[in-house]
Specification:
Elements: H1 2-5, H2 26-45, H3 69-91, E1 97-101, E2 107-109, E3 112-114, E4 120-123, H4 124-136, H5 159-178, H6 192-216, H7 220-226, H8 232-244
Helix pairs in contact: 2-3, 3-4, 4-5, 7-8
C-alpha cells in the first residue's frame, strides 16, 4: 500500500536528515545505525535531553572502531539477547502466575444465572514476552534495517515502545516489592516503605520533567530554543527566522 501511494519509488531525503545513510563507508553506516537504538533506549531511561530535531550533526557518526559508543552498543545488544533468551526460556517453564481478569460470580442476575469462571492466569514469562515484543517490534521500521528513514532520532517513534518499557518496569516493581521483608530491616534500604518512597521519587522526577518539557511546547520559539543545545545550527536558524518575521 505504501509503495503504491508513493508511485513505487523510494522516498527522497536530504543528506542532512539522515547523514549516516549518505555516508560512503559501509562500516560507518552500520556502526552508526547500530548505535541509534541505544540512544533511543537511553531516552526512555533518562529523558533529560530532548530535541525537536536530531538531524545534521546532532548525533555524530560513529566512524571509528575505537569509539567508546561501540562499547555501549555491544553491551546493549548483549543484554537484549540475554533477556530474550531468558524470556523465551521462562515462557515454556511453569511459573507463578497472576490473575489478569475475573468474569462475574455465581448468582442470578436479571433472571440469568451466570457461572463462575476462574480468573485468567498469565505467567510472568508471558508478561515479559509481551513487554519485550512491544518494546522492540514497533521500533524496527525506524532502525534503517529494511529501508532508510528521513530522520536520525525521532522521539515520536518511542510512543508504542514505551508501553513495553512501562510493562517491564511494572513487572520489576512488583518483583521488588514482593521480595521486601514484611518486618522493618536494620538497613533503611531493605524495608518495603523505603522502596515505595524510592519509586515515588522516580515517578515525581519524571512528572517534573514532563511539566518542564510541556513548557517547551507552548510556542514555536520556545520549542526551537530548547533544541539549541542538541542541534545548534537548526535551532538558531529557526529562532532567527521567527524573529525576522515579527
Amino acid at each position: 500500500m505504501r509503495l503504491m501511494l508513493m508511485g513505487f519509488s523510494a522516498p527522497d531525503f536530504s543528506p542532512s536528515d539522515n547523514p549516516a545513510s549518505d555516508c560512503d563507508s559501509l562500516l560507518t553506516r552500520w556502526m552508526t545505525f547500530a548505535f541509534l537504538p541505544v540512544l533511543n533506549f537511553y531516552l526512555l531511561l533518562c529523558p533529560v535531553t530532548l530535541s525537536f530535531d536530531w538531524s545534521m550533526s546532532a548525533v555524530p557518526l560513529v566512524d571509528s572502531c575505537s569509539d567508546a559508543r561501540n562499547l555501549m552498543t555491544s553491551a546493549f545488544y548483549a543484554s537484549l539477547i540475554m533477556m530474550t533468551w531468558r524470556v523465551v526460556r521462562d515462557v515454556n517453564r511453569p511459573s507463578t502466575s497472576v490473575a489478569a481478569a475475573s468474569n462475574g460470580h455465581c448468582g442470578d442476575v436479571g433472571g440469568l444465572r451466570w457461572k463462575r469462571r476462574r480468573p485468567m492466569r498469565v505467567g510472568r514469562g508471558q508478561l515479559l514476552l509481551l513487554a519485550l515484543t512491544l518494546l522492540t517490534l514497533p521500533f524496527i521500521p525506524a532502525t534503517n534495517l529494511f529501508f532508510y528513514v528521513g530522520f536520525v532520532v525521532a522521539e515520536r517513534v518511542l510512543y508504542i515502545p514505551s508501553t513495553g518499557y512501562c510493562l517491564l518496569l511494572s513487572v520489576a516493581v512488583v518483583d521488588l516489592v514482593s521480595r521486601c521483608p514484611r518486618r522493618p530491616a536494620l538497613s533503611p534500604f531493605r524495608s518495603s516503605l523505603s522502596r515505595y518512597w524510592m519509586m515515588m521519587l522516580l515517578v515525581m522526577s519524571l512528572a517534573l520533567r514532563t511539566l518542564i518539557r510541556n513548557a517547551d511546547w507552548l510556542n514555536e520559539e520556545a520549542l526551537y530554543r530548547s533544541g539549541i543545545s542538541v542541534n545548534p545550527a537548526k535551532g538558531r536558524s529557526l529562532v532567527s527566522l521567527i524573529a525576522a518575521h515579527r
